[in-house]
Amino acid sequence: MGPRQSHSGWRSPRFARDDGGEWKGHNRGFEETSALSMPNAKIYIAGHRGMVGSAILRRLWAQGVASTQLLTATHAELDLTQQRAVNSFFAKHRPTEVYLAAAKVGGIHANNTYPADFIYDNLMMQANVIQAAFAHGVQKLLFLGSSCIYPRMAAQPMSEDALLTGPLEPTNEPYAIAKIAGIKLCESYNRQYGASHGVDYRSVMPTNLYGPGDNYHPENSHVLPALIRRFHEARSQGLAEVKVWGTGTPRREFLYVDDMAAACVHVMNLPLSVYQQHTQPMLSHINVGCAEDVTIANVAQTIAKVVGYSGRIVFDSSKPDGTPRKHMDSKRLNSLGWHPKVSLEKGLALAYQDFLAQLNA
Fold first, then answer.
1. What is the C-alpha separation between 250 and 358, in angstroms, rounded?
2. Residue 41: what are its φ and ψ, rounded to 5°?
3. What is the tens place of the pLDDT at every residue in 268-308?
4. Which of 59, 96, 103, 277 has the least C-beta neighbours within 10 A?
């Protein structure tokens, strides 16, 4: 069985249809207005059951967006890889903004085992949602990518202009290629239809994310949730040691998912003039990271502390390390007024509570 899919389809919307005027498609005004101040906005979160999508929902609610303005759905009701179904959804429900958080995601093992699934499903979801959004008059869209878009040996910290400057990390290249294509889809629609149709499709590239709603599968999860599960099971079973893939020397940064959601809403609602001042037409994505990176060994030790495991930690150097270091340069986003708020140790404690809640559900 392949890795968990975090994308979702549609469900019957909870909002009241806005029948007060004629739908004007791409001829609507180009004012730089936020959905937070637009009572008739209909915001579609693609992937709302995934970790990031659910955090975006929480953030929008916290900022006062009414539930009646939010359009969500399940994968069982709409497969985002199916173009006709996606077009029908947009034609029927007419969202005015889209957060494209839908993706097929997984760790090193999953990416190595299911490379065709990762590139095909992600390409199809992105292409279908972005094209349907354009065809049905959506002017504001935010696409969520990944830090794996950058070359394996990119200079650290990785700035946005490192894109397409060298070979990718082989262990997740298919997924990275799909995410790069998503960025270029947004940029291409902006270049072709921005001036004539008011299209404003933006992209954000998060670092490694964790938190509520994560996937804790023992084989198909990312490193941090996999370690949370492994250390919890070791403590519960009284194991003397825990094996961790790789040497423990690679450096990573980890961002709590609710911080990521705050960044998404922040970028989505930047005035177009401000966004354009800080980006380029063919280099328009924005990194979302935190201030520091840590070794996998340090992460393992912190998780052991949070979980309450006191045994040995053994690193299995026969397993791949992945990229030696991944540290995002987030100066661009910081200059636009956003900074993370949740520390790694606090976030890990919250993530462990989420794991326990899932385990006992």
1. 29
2. -65, 145
3. 999 999 999 999 999 999 999 997 899 999 999 999 999 99
4. 277
User: Which domain range does residue 161 map to?
Assistant: 25-210+255-289+327-342
**pLDDT per residue as tens digits for the range 24-49:** 233 333 333 455 556 689 999 999 99
- Please report which residue ranges of the chain form alpha helices under DSSP H: 51-62, 83-93, 108-113, 115-135, 173-197, 223-237, 257-268, 272-277, 296-307, 331-335, 344-360
Domain count for the chain: 1
- 241, part of any domain: no
Give domain status of residue 69, yes or no. yes
Q: What CA–CA distance (Å, rounded) separates 50 from 338?
A: 23
Cis omega before residue 13 (within 30°)? Answer: no
Domain annotation covers residue 92? yes
Say which CATH number the domain at 172 has: 3.40.50.720
Which residues have a catalytic role annotated? 175
Q: Closest Cα partner for 351 from 221, 204, 228?
A: 228
Q: Do residues 172 and 148 touch, judged by C-beta distance below 8 A? A: yes
Half-sphere exposure of 15 (CA within 13 A, CB side): 24
Instruction: Map tokens 């280099």 to a residue.
Output: 283
Closest to 330 in 3D by CA, of 147, 174, 190: 147
CA pair distance 208, 41, nearest whole angstrom: 31
Residues 6 and 62: their CA atoms lie apart, in Å, by 23
User: Dihedral (C-alpha) 185, 279, 94, 132: value to the nearest 10 degrees?
Assistant: 0
CA-based angle 283:156:352, to the nearest 5?
A: 100
The CA distance from 301 to 281, in Å, is 43
Domain contains 220: no
Quote the pTM value.
Answer: 0.86
